[in-house]
Amino acid sequence: MDLKYKTPLAFLLVISILASGCVQSEPQEEKELQEFQQTKNIMDTTVTVAVYAPNESEASKATDDAFSEIYRIDALMSPSKEDSQLTILNTVGEVENADPDFIYVLEQSKYYSEKSGGAFDITIQPVLDLWKSKFLPGGSQEPPTADELNETLKLVNYSKISIENGTVSLEPGMKIALGGIAKGYAVDKAIEALEEDGIENAFVNAGGDGKYIGQKSDGTPWVVGLQNPDRSGQYVTAIEARDIAVATSGNYERYFNESAKVSHISDPRTGYPSEGIISSTVIAGNAIDADSFATAIFVLGEEEGLEMIENLEGVECLIITEDRRLVYSSGFKEYETED
After folding, report:
1. Residue 198: in which H helix or E strand, if any?
2. Based on the domain organization, do 63 and 97 belong to the same domain?
3. Could you say which of 170, 226, 249, 251 would form a disulfide bridge with 174 (CB–CB 3.0 to 4.6 Å)?
4. Are residues 60 and 208 in the same domain?
5. Sign of torsion, CA 267 208 105 215?
6. Domain end call among 134, 169, 204
């Protein structure tokens, strides 16, 4: 799981929106809709909000409201903000009167942990800290020993997260990482804000985690392209995205140390970096589901990851293995474009 929020998919694998610009639409029910788009850097990634609205004023309000939700979630769950509830929990082990959104994400994380057999576990942070310490200046510049990992793994147990009467607490030494879930939740909250403002056709994409509602003004769906990891600008497939979320987890040369080549996603069950998969892309109804299950697949690997997805309702995946094979869940191809 991520040490921090995942960066934009700017290396070997990216999710690209194959629809952009301010394009004037055909009249719809006496309203002429235009596409308005804005991009900002939030949660250590690039976030784009695109909406169809009758005028710039309505689009601006809706877009501002969407970004406000993302900023709010970031303020709660950022690992780099000293006053975030995540930082407070990791520092003192307890947060009283925790924000309902913070509690919701923690509760949902337990669901993903159970569905993945512990491959998704937000209490992985002590293991990530251990790996990082080894490759910082002054560190050994070598992987942790088996004894060090086994000792640290005693602090990794999602069932030990206590949530009671609005208070969240951890056992001594435990810490959590929300890099594999918070961004997806922020995307969902941003879409909710757009819908509350009456926006019916829009998308929010945060560094490869996106949710898409409605359609483009010409009646065609949003299209999401999955880039070929070996050829920049080429796509292995394209997805028709109408009222779905799409998220990708992967290894994009993001390492603790360039020479060590250590993946930023580690297995909470073993403490070792995940291997065997270049990327896992998940389609789901909500971005929080897509984000979390994509991370879980990356940890589980091809066979176990595919088995998990096949047992979930309304969730599909595409896995790219290290030997460049494309592995599809049974219903994924239904979302692919015919062109």
Report:
1. none
2. no
3. 170
4. yes
5. negative
6. 169
* pLDDT tens sequence for the chain (339 residues): 544 444 334 333 344 444 444 444 444 444 688 999 999 999 999 999 999 999 999 999 999 999 999 999 999 999 999 999 999 999 999 999 999 999 999 999 999 999 999 999 999 999 999 999 998 888 888 999 999 999 999 999 999 999 999 999 999 999 999 999 999 999 999 999 999 999 999 999 999 899 999 999 888 999 999 877 766 667 889 999 999 999 998 764 333 444 344 445 789 999 998 888 998 999 999 999 999 999 999 999 999 999 999 999 999 999 999 998 999 999 999 999 876
Residues 263 and 316 in one domain: yes
Angle formed by the axes of helices 302-310 and 287-300, to 10°? 140
Do residues 168 and 161 touch, judged by C-beta distance below 8 A?
A: yes
d(CA 116, CA 99): 26
- Contact (Cβ atoms closer than 8 angstroms) between residue 223 and residue 18: yes
Do residues 165 and 188 share a domain?
A: no
Domain span holding position 300: 15-73+181-335
Same domain, 207 and 312: yes
In DSSP notation, 114-140 reads HHTTTSS-GGGHHHHHHHHHHHSTTS-
Answer whether residue 154 is part of any domain.
yes
Contact present, 286 and 298 (Cβ < 8 Å): no
Return the amino acid letter for 330.
S
| Total of domains in the chain | 2
- pTM check: above 0.85: yes
Residues 53, 197: one domain? yes
